[in-house]
Design goal:
nucleotide-binding (chains A, B), ATP binding (chains A, B), purine biosynthesis (chains A, B), homodimer, N5-carboxyaminoimidazole ribonucleotide synthase (chains A, B), Dna Ligase, domain 1, metal ion binding (chains A, B), four-stranded parallel sheet
């Protein structure tokens, strides 16, 4: 059975290991530390930096294919690996669109994919360019670092072009942060369309989900998106499959979408298992982690058929108490059917340390169960009662 | 999160690792070799022998609880670990009933559990005792080694007390094999009742399944057992929960049963995840591997609700061709919803190397899908076509 290398030792690699065990594939992870989430659960762990080409070159030896649990590997290094003959999936040319938001916007807009209006913000005329963009689209305006942002980092909503904005832009330009601006879209809600694509070009689409963000971090995911118009759902799936094909994505592609009065707009792309797809571990016949492995190994893709009418995933963030074990016991006793996933991370306030999944026919009940479990794990009273 | 030690590096430990990753528990395995099925997928692997008390004592240091992927640890060694203060679950007193068939029969019969008629076969009067037992129950008679048998090993069906039987019995007695006899039960089919029990005494029962053996090896499992009378199913579940409580089992208990004209009879016991429960990975809200971990960690048990009307598990045995990858691809392409599980073992003819699971509403269709996948993986024509 083949060795798959995954660069990055986070929870996405950790959950990919669960799927690799079933498939019989061997997962090798490149982790920064033996304490990383995935390093704690894999047999084949290499310690190194994803920002070191030497470490990457050592890591890929013996892997039939290399994939990624994040977007932070420098594009030039992925190209160098490809030039060495390493099969990187997704490849550098595709992955660049998940690494650089401006490249993504320019490519998708040119291809006719529905996107918010946007503009590059050149360093030498940053404030003027931002003011001009604000005049065109109206304020507020969304300012983004073109690279490196995630979970609300690298994104600012600017109410106007006043002194606070000028100060922020000056600071970012001084720090060398490449910037772009986007219109602030008055969306109804956020959706995500998750698809997979194999090197042969086989595609598979999961049901479109609703994602709820809080403080820029994914808070909960409802599968399928409740009340979503069937035509719009099909349009979103087609859009995601089309982007995957156009960009030659291999593996998973998560397309984060805004649902507006007029349809959907593309917000962000990710080319890896994605927080909006954690519900598939229990909620789909094939989890996103298995699907990603099947795609990068050029195996036939698995069924995306849902296993329940509704599946709700809620992220568990760290609270003030580092010891959540008593609350863990409470949650399991309270709801024997809720599934708890922990990432093996130390608890820090606001850090994603796990997620919970609930399933059923009655959406209100399923939502309540998932929310109770996630909130209780973060800050429920059990810790006070039991100590 | 706690460290759980599992003695044995087979596929049961391997699949337990998948569940441990989700629960956030750390699984440590004692494997005979780094090539063992579970050693290939765990971060915390200790190499040693389960027949060495020294190796066992080193292994358990730092584990909050120790459990087992097989029955082959000498009972005296488990008692020694317990005397050292190690939490062994199941404990030595319970586990002995899964290690020694005569102890099990005597205990269950005394407790009134329905069992086949049986007799100890003393070494010094073996053939005479066997003849007497055969006169009482009629021939054929089942001869069993009281310890160490599995997958049809250590079990002989004797047609009569003729010369072949005398020769076999002489040889076994010479080898020091402890023996017992059981009546040959004219069963309709075989069933299995899988339950879990926690140290608090919480119990959970899975739906009763039908198991189909071939050459003494589990061939396929149908969940739930089709056409099983509701009262008989409930009786089998109660019987298994009752045995678990009486024997003070902690963890899983699989009770293999014969269904006869008059009800059920206990065939064998196992106190660990069991081949008859592999279907629960996809087919139940809580897999048997997660359930075993929850039970031995004294966590509240998970829901045993089925996730489909029918789930069929078929074992994949090795065929003549060591390279099954081309057949693997075929099976995935043929049926995107069948789930393939590989154990990371080298292929040898007749060796259990994995299993497949199919689910759906139409039993005939589900059976056909699982059988096709398992048979094709073993010996399908794809290998000939693709090379």
């Amino acid at each position: 059975m083949p060795v798959v290398g995954m660069v990055g030792g986070g929870q996405l690699a950790r959950m990919t290991q669960q799927a690799a065990i079933g498939l019989g594939a061997q997962l090798r992870v490149l982790a920064a530390s033996p304490q990383d989430s995935a390093a704690r659960v894999c047999a084949d762990v290499r310690i190194g930096e994803h920002t070191s080409l030497e470490d990457l070159r050592g890591f890929v030896k013996g892997c039939v294919v290399v994939t990624f649990d994040h977007e932070h590997v420098p594009p030039a290094f992925i190209r160098a690996l490809e030039e060495d003959g390493t099969a990187c999936r997704p490849g550098s040319a595709a992955l660049l669109h998940a690494q650089d938001k401006l490249v993504m916007r320019e490519r998708l807009s040119a291809a006719g994919a529905p996107c918010p209006r946007f503009a590059a913000i050149p360093a030498d005329t940053a404030l003027a360019a931002l003011e001009a963009f604000g005049r065109e689209t109206g304020w507020p305006v969304v300012l983004k670092a073109t690279r490196g942002g995630y979970d609300g980092k690298g994104l600012w909503i600017l109410p106007d072009a006043g002194p606070a904005t000028a100060e922020l832009v000056d600071r970012l330009v001084d720090e060398g942060v490449a910037l772009m601006a986007e219109e602030h879209v008055p969306f109804r809600r956020e959706l995500a369309a998750l698809v997979a694509r194999s090197p042969y070009g086989q595609g598979a689409a999961y049901p479109v989900v609703e994602t709820v963000q809080r403080d820029g971090i994914c808070h909960e995911v409802i599968a399928p998106a409740p009340g979503l118009d069937d035509d719009l759902a099909a349009e979103a799936q087609r859009l995601a499959l089309d982007i995957a094909a156009r960009l030659d994505v291999v593996g998973l592609l998560a397309v984060e979408l805004f649902e507006t009065e007029d349809g959907v707009l593309v917000n962000e792309l990710a080319m890896r298992p994605h927080n909006s797809g954690h519900w598939t571990i229990e909620g789909s016949r094939t989890s996103q982690f298995e699907q990603h492995l099947r795609a990068v190994l050029n195996l036939p893709l698995g069924s995306t058929e849902p296993t329940a009418r509704y599946t709700v995933m809620a992220n568990v963030l760290g609270g003030d108490d580092p010891d959540l074990y008593p609350r863990y016991i409470h949650v399991m006793a309270h709801d024997p059917a809720v599934k708890v996933h922990f990432y093996g991370k130390d608890v820090r306030p606001g850090r994603k340390i796990g997620h919970v999944t609930a399933m059923g026919d009655d959406l209100d009940e399923v939502l309540e169960r998932a929310r109770h479990a996630a909130e209780y794990l973060r800050s429920g009273p059990a810790m006070k009662e039991t100590r």
